[in-house]
Amino acid sequence: MNDSQFLKAFEDCTLSAFPHRSPIHMAWLYLRAHGWDAGLRHIRDGIRRFAASRGATDKYHESITVFWARLVLA
């Protein structure tokens, strides 16, 4: 699966799995494409939407999301 297919599947919530490296990959793609402000919005919205599609809305954590996004950007 290439990067654009990965993001489409993530955005459509059709990924069969979202292992630990996937959020980092997704964050890197969004930040690279959109910069900090818009990239972080895509990351936040995407994680919330994906978690909701799995009935796991409690899995989103703002501080952890921003922390990893900052690390990815560094």
Structural class: mainly alpha
Strand content: under 5%
Structure annotation, total helices: 3
Pattern of helices and strands: HHH
Short précis:
This protein has 3 helices and no strands. The chain is mainly alpha-helical and 74 residues long.
Kindly describe this structure.
The chain is an all-alpha fold. The chain has three helices and no strands. It has one domain. Helix content is about 75%, strand content about 0%. Helix 1 runs parallel beside helix 2 (about 20-55) and helix 2 (about 20-55) packs antiparallel against helix 3. The longest helix is centred in the middle third of the chain and has 33 residues, at about 20-55. The mean pLDDT is about 95.
Set out the fold topology.
Layout: H1 3-11, H2 21-53, H3 62-73
Keywords:
73% helix, 3 helices, 74 residues, globular, mainly alpha
